[in-house]
Design brief:
Elements (H helix, E strand, L loop, with lengths): L2 H21 L14 E5 L6 H17 L3 E5 L6 H9 L6 E6 H10 L10 E17 L7 H10 L5 E5 L5 H13 L3 E5 L3 H9 L5 E5 L3 H7 L3 E6 L26 E9 L4 H15 L2 H9 L2 E3 L6 H21 L7
Parallel strand pairs: 1-2, 1-3, 5-6, 5-7
Antiparallel strand pairs: 3-9, 4-7, 4-8, 4-9, 4-10
Helix pairs in contact: 2-9
Keywords: Signal
InterPro entries: BUG, Bug_dom1, TAT_signal
Protein name: ABC transporter substrate-binding protein
C-alpha cells in the first residue's frame, strides 16, 4: 500500500467511525414551546377596550401555557405602530397581536404608509365582536340618536366634532357614513386610542365620539361626564341591555356595525406553535368567568375553534366585511 493510498484509507476510516458515532447519538430535542414569556401586543394605549380585553386573555393564556404573557401597548397610527412591531418580530410564536379589522385590514388597505398587507398576518383564533357606541359630551342638547342627528343638521356652518381612535379606523368611516346618510356635517378628530379619545370627550374637546363600549362609560355617564346615546348593534350581551339599540332610531334603524377581533401572529409561524396558542385561547374562551368579564366590557364572545381551517375561514369573512364596508362608504383600497 503506497503512502498516498494509506492516507486515503485512514481518512475514510475516520469519517466512517465518526458517522457511526454520530448515528448513535440521540437527535437533539426541539425547544419546547413556550419556554419563555410571550408578548401580547396591543396597538393602542393602556386603558382602552382592546387593552382591557387583552389583559383578561393574558391572565388565562399564561396559566394555560405556564408562562407569563406580557401585554405591550404601542399606540398611534390607527394601530400601525403595534402591527409593525409584530411583523418585525421573529415568526416564532412568542409575539402575538390583539388585532381587529382596523389594524389588520383597514390600515393596509387605506394607508399607503402601512407597508404590509392583511395576508402578512395569520389569524390564530377569533375572540369577540366589540359593540360600538355613540357617546356625546355633557351639555350637548340631545338624549337620543335621532335628536342628536336633528341637532347636527341645524348648524352646518359649525359641524359637530367627533373623536375616534384614528384616521381610517372603522369608527372614522362610520362617522363619515352617518353624516352622508343623514345630511349632517361632522368634523373628525383622531386620537391615538380609545382612552385618550374618551378623555377628550369628557373634557369637552369634542362633541361626540364613536368608540367600542367599555364598562367605564356607565360610571362616567352616572357622574354626568358624558351620555351614551346608542349602540350600533342589532343585539347586545346581557350587561349592556340598558343601552339603546340602533333599531330604535327612526332615521337610521339599519346602521349596524360591530368590530371583529382576534389574536394574530406573523405569517410563517410554525403551525404547531399556532395550534398551541389557539388551544390556550380556546381554553380562555371556554371559561365562564372569562366570558362574563368580556361581556361586561361590551364584547360578544366567540366560541373556541380547533383548527387553522376554521381560523382561515374567519379571516376571509373579515376581509369580506371590510370590502363591503369600503364599498358602502365609497372608499377604494390603495394600490
Amino acid at each position: 500500500m503506497t503512502s498516498q493510498t494509506r492516507r486515503r484509507f485512514l481518512q475514510y476510516a475516520g469519517l466512517g467511525a465518526g458517522s457511526t458515532l454520530l448515528a448513535g447519538l440521540p437527535a437533539r430535542a426541539a425547544e419546547p414551546y413556550p419556554s419563555r414569556p410571550l408578548s401580547l401586543v396591543v396597538p393602542y394605549p393602556a386603558g382602552g377596550a382592546t387593552d382591557a380585553s387583552a389583559r383578561i386573555f393574558a391572565e388565562s393564556i399564561g396559566k394555560s401555557v405556564k408562562q407569563q404573557v406580557v401585554v405591550e401597548n404601542y399606540g398611534g397610527g390607527t394601530g400601525l405602530i403595534g402591527a409593525n412591531k409584530v411583523l418585525a418580530a421573529p415568526a416564532d410564536g412568542y409575539t402575538f397581536f390583539a388585532g381587529s379589522i382596523n389594524e389588520v385590514f383597514l390600515a393596509p388597505l387605506l394607508n399607503p404608509s402601512a407597508r404590509y398587507k392583511p395576508q402578512d398576518f395569520l389569524l390564530a383564533a377569533p375572540v369577540s365582536d366589540a359593540n360600538i357606541v355613540l357617546l356625546v359630551r355633557s351639555g350637548l342638547a340631545a338624549d337620543s340618536l335621532d335628536k342628536f342627528l336633528d341637532l347636527a343638521r341645524q348648524n352646518r356652518s359649525k359641524p359637530l366634532t367627533y373623536a375616534t381612535v384614528g384616521i381610517d379606523s372603522i369608527y372614522h368611516l362610520m362617522g363619515d357614513a352617518l353624516g352622508a346618510r343623514t345630511g349632517a356635517t361632522f368634523l373628525h378628530v383622531p386620537y391615538k386610542g380609545a382612552a385618550p379619545a374618551l378623555q377628550g370627550l369628557a373634557g369637552g374637546e369634542v362633541d361626540f365620539a364613536i368608540l367600542p363600549y367599555q364598562s367605564s362609560f356607565d360610571s362616567m355617564q352616572g357622574m354626568g361626564r358624558l351620555k351614551v346615546l346608542t349602540s350600533f348593534s342589532r343585539a347586545l350581551p346581557a350587561p349592556l341591555k340598558h343601552i339603546p339599540l340602533i333599531s330604535l332610531s327612526r332615521q337610521v334603524p339599519d346602521f349596524e356595525y360591530t368590530i371583529s377581533g382576534g389574536y394574530f401572529v406573523r405569517q410563517g409561524t410554525p403551525a404547531e406553535r399556532v395550534a398551541a396558542l389557539r388551544k390556550a385561547i380556546g381554553e380562555a374562551l371556554a371559561k365562564p368567568d372569562v366570558r362574563a368579564r368580556l361581556e361586561a366590557e361590551g364584547r360578544t364572545v366567540e366560541r373556541p375553534i380547533d383548527s387553522q381551517a376554521q381560523a382561515d375561514q374567519c379571516f376571509d369573512q373579515y376581509m369580506g366585511r371590510v370590502t363591503q364596508l369600503l364599498r358602502s362608504v365609497g372608499r377604494k383600497a390603495v394600490a
